[in-house]
Amino acid sequence: MPSHYTRIVLNERPPGDIDSKTFRSEKASYSELKVGDDQVLVQVTWLSLDPAMRGWLRDERSYLPPVQIGETMRAGGLGVVVNKGRDVKLKIGQLVSGTFGWTEYAVVREKDAEAIKYVLKLHSTDLV
Question: Which tens digits make up the pLDDT trace of 2-38?
C-alpha cells in the first residue's frame, strides 16, 4: 500500500463560479486510514460528477448537509475493498459503490458500501 494518498477538499465557498481557489489537493498519510470492526477501506477507482454537487458547496439547508470547509468533497463512486473490519461480510477485492468523496481511499461503514455484481462483458464504468 502507498505511504500517502490524495484527496480533494473544499477550500472556500465560491461566491459565483467555481474557480481554482474553490478546492485544494491534500496529501494524507495512508496510515491514518484506520478500519473499525464494521468498516471497509475502499480504493476509489471511479467518481461521479453531478449537478447536485454545486448545491452541496453552498452553506444552505438542503436534502443533505453542505460540504464543510476542509472536508473531502462529497461524491458517489466505485471502488474496490482493500481492507475490512472483523465484522464485515464483504470480501477483499469486492467491487463496491458508495459515497466515498473525491479521494483515492476512503473508510466507510459496510452498510454504506454496496456490493456490485456485474456481467463479465460490462466494464465497471457502466455502473457509475
Answer: 999 999 999 999 999 999 999 999 999 999 999 999 9
Closest C-alpha to 102, from 63, 69, 72, 57: 72
* Contact present, 33 and 7 (Cβ < 8 Å): no
CA distances to 14, 36, 67, 89 from 54, in Å:
9, 32, 10, 35
Candidates 64, 83, 78, 82; CA nearest to 114 is: 78
Question: Residue 100, class by beta-carbon neighbours within 10 Å (0-12 exposed, 13-18 middle, 19+ buried)?
Answer: buried
Alpha helices (runs of H) in the chain, residue ranges in sequence order:
52-56
Distance CA 97, CA 69 (A): 25
* Angle, CA of 32, 36 and 40, to the nearest 5°: 85
Q: pLDDT of 41-75, one tens digit each?
A: 999 999 999 999 999 999 998 899 999 999 999 99
**Residue linked to cell 472536508:** 71
- pTM for this model (two decimals): 0.88
